[in-house]
Amino acid sequence: MVCEILDRYHKDSTKLIPILQDIQDQYSYLPEDIMTFVSTALGISSSTVYGVATFYAHFTLAPKGKHIIKVCDGTACHVKKSDLLLDVIEKELALDKNKKTTDDGLFTLETVACLGACGLAPVLVIDDKVHGLMTPETTLALIHQIKEAEKNEQN
Description:
The chain is an alpha+beta fold and 155 residues long. 49% of the residues lie in helices and 12% in strands. It folds into 2 domains: 2-55; 67-154, Glutaredoxin. A 4-stranded mixed sheet has the order 2-1-3-4, with helices on one face. A hairpin with a 2-residue loop joins strand 3 (124-126) and strand 4.
């Protein structure tokens, strides 16, 4: 698949960003061995590939879960106790500051500086859908709803 992506861009090193985007779309992150392969195939240093991959926030070097939960910790959300949302999510999903993705690969938890929805504080985003005026209870209900939907999907 990586070779197909490289061929699609004619192995043009000036197309490194879209190449990495396509690879990340395929794998859900940028594996180190694939970045090394890309650097060799494009004739550029691995530090250049790594530098691009770490500079842009869009790229990730670690696998992410199927559902990405982003909890806002900007000023308005922090004042409205977004830390309580983080606490309940971490407890429910067995996550912490060092472990951001569940063992089953279903959820990844991220804290963001601002989601730009201060009037709805505290806010979280799950899979690009904004959920405002959240409480620990509504947060747990949302996670349980997603878990149930996943369970039904598997059956």
